[in-house]
Amino acid sequence: MSPPPPVICCLLTLLVLTAAVFDLRGYRIPNWLTFAGLLLALALNAFLFRRAGISYSLEGLALAATIYFVLYLLHGMGAGDVKLMAAIGAAVGPWNWFAILFLTAIFGALAALVLALAKHRVRKTFLNMGLLLRSLAKGRAPYRANPELDVQNDTALRLPHALAIALATLAFLALALIGTNPAAPPNR
Predict the structure, then answer these.
(1) Which ranges constitute the DSSP H helices of 27-78?
(2) What is the pLDDT along the chain (188 residues), one digit of tens a residue?
(3) Are 83 and 162 in contact (CB under 8 A)?
């Protein structure tokens, strides 16, 4: 895990906090925000690290977009989440993005547990998780077995995923800065 340059840290902070606010208010992340973040991430990496920065940025973008697009096809994520994670991947590159993905999974699981407890749906949530795992093991889309597993369904227990992404990204930035060796160049 290597800390991004300060200008990338500022971009990420603004991007994820703004996305979280939009997602909390209306379960939508605007295209203008994600595309602007993506273009700025590409441009900043190209400016700071030239050809290596472009390659690094595109690798992060491709990895994030691929993984989150699969989740979108399974109706587990919205399209805005895919575009937000692609922009983050373009900003931090593939290896740092994996760290953010891991932290997002932790924050997302904690938020889902709190939401399930608050809505008194813990048992149903765990039953749905079992159904989800069984469906995936059989190579089937989970939302076909139960409409509640479709993020686009009104009966689903929905969570603004940009909030988990924002918390994970900010935690990543804090952890990367704490573990920084000022004498060492970033791993690019």
Answers:
(1) 31-73
(2) 688 999 999 999 999 999 999 999 998 999 999 999 999 999 999 999 999 999 999 999 999 999 999 888 887 788 999 999 999 999 999 999 999 999 999 998 898 888 888 878 788 777 777 766 777 777 777 777 777 766 777 766 678 899 999 999 999 999 998 876 443 445 54
(3) no
Give SS3 for 10: helix
For the entire predicted model, the pTM comes to 0.85
Local structure of 77: helix, strand or coil: coil
The pair of structure tokens assigned to 145 is 């077995």
Which amino acid does the sequence have at 33? L
Distances (CA, A) of 176 to 14, 172, 186: 17, 6, 11
